[in-house]
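Entry:
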Amino acid sequence: MPHHSDSELFDVCDADDNVIGQATRGEVHARGLLHRAVHIFVFNSRGRLLIQRRSAHKDEFPLCYTSSPSGHVDAGETYESAAERELREELGLSGALEFIHSFPASADTANEHTRLYRFESDDTPRPDAHEIESLEWCDLNDLAARVRNDPADFSPPL
């Protein structure tokens, strides 16, 4: 499984999500440049959402809970390709994704133009140990209460 480095290349975007250049991961994060990301909500057939606790190795929000898989869109990559790649790399899952919503880049999304996808599967995820500390299936109401009661435990983009 690939592991991220500060030299990865991302598309830099304007406020309307138009690509205006490219920069390394390290530069994008250090300078707060707008870039692209994907999040996937993985549900099982019982309607429970899979969340992950990010590994201690992550450069942003280590050990915080976040979407099932999530990640940056590489330079020249489409949102959908990135979502399929992240699902496969982080959880070892693949299949049809359903586009849910786009979110504009802001402080709340870590300066990421973000597209959210939905994926349903009862297959057993195979988490990438470098990316993911642990996985947990959650009832949506219970998760919403946890986020309200302890927001620091969750990545802001979630």
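Residues 111 and 117 are 19 Å apart (CA to CA).
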